[in-house]
Each structure stands twice: as C-alpha cells, then as structure tokens.
Amino acid sequence: IFEFRTKYRYAKFRQIGLKSPPPHNIKVSKGSVHIVASRGYIEFLIMDRRSQDFTKWVRDTRNPDETLFSTMNHNPHLRVPGSFNGMPLMNYFIFLNI
C-alpha cells in the first residue's frame, strides 16, 4: 500500500577530483538538522550574499542541511544574528564495527 503513496529516488553523488574550498573563508562544521533559530538568523541565511554562496557550495554534499545550519552558527567572522559565540564542542567518537 505504501508504494503507491510515496515516491523516492535513489541517486549517487559523483564528483571527479577535490571540491573547492568553501567561499568567504568559512570553516565547515557539521551538526543537527533540527535547530531553534531567531528571525535574524533566518533572514541572514536567506538574504546575505555569503550565506547564499555557501548554500550553493554545500548543495552537492551528502548532508547539506546538517552542514549549512551548523556552519553558519559556528563562524563568528560572519556575524550571523543569534549565532553561537562560544567555542564549538569537539566530540570524538570511537566506532567498533563487529
């Protein structure tokens, strides 16, 4: 029954060579796709040229939404309204594959 109600598409991302560095000296970070944001933060994401350039750059990555929100939040030189001003939390994980 679900096959008629949903649509999906399987696609592989292919890239030849290395990706260019992020624009505007932005340091990339990864975080959650779920965020609480101020109106100023959202307006910055939509209106600011640096945010638009980074959105285009991150578009062909594996998780662009998780990268976009976190990266904009952790780059103080962009002066994003409502962004985090402290040091980002660095978690290191050890994975065991059995």
Shape: globular
> What value does the Rg take, in angstroms?
17 Å
Structural class: mainly alpha
- What is the terminal separation in angstroms? 35 Å
What is the subunit arrangement here?
single chain
Specify the number of helices.
4
Query: How would you sum up the major sheet?
Result: none
GO molecular function, one term: acetylglucosaminyltransferase activity
Keywords: Glycoprotein, Glycosyltransferase, Membrane, Signal-anchor, Transferase, Transmembrane, Transmembrane helix
Pathway: Protein modification; protein glycosylation
Subcellular location: Membrane
Can you describe this structure?
- The chain has 98 residues and is mostly helical.
- It has one domain (2-78).
- It has helices at residues 2-5, 39-47, 49-58, 64-73.
- It starts with a helix and ends in a 25-residue tail after the last helix.
- Keywords: Glycoprotein, Glycosyltransferase, Membrane, Signal-anchor, Transferase, Transmembrane, Transmembrane helix.
- One of its GO terms (molecular function) is acetylglucosaminyltransferase activity.
- InterPro entries: Glyco_trans_14.
Summarize the structure.
The chain has 98 residues and is mostly helical.
What key attributes describe this structure?
glycoprotein; mainly alpha; glycosyltransferase; membrane; 98 residues; 34% helix
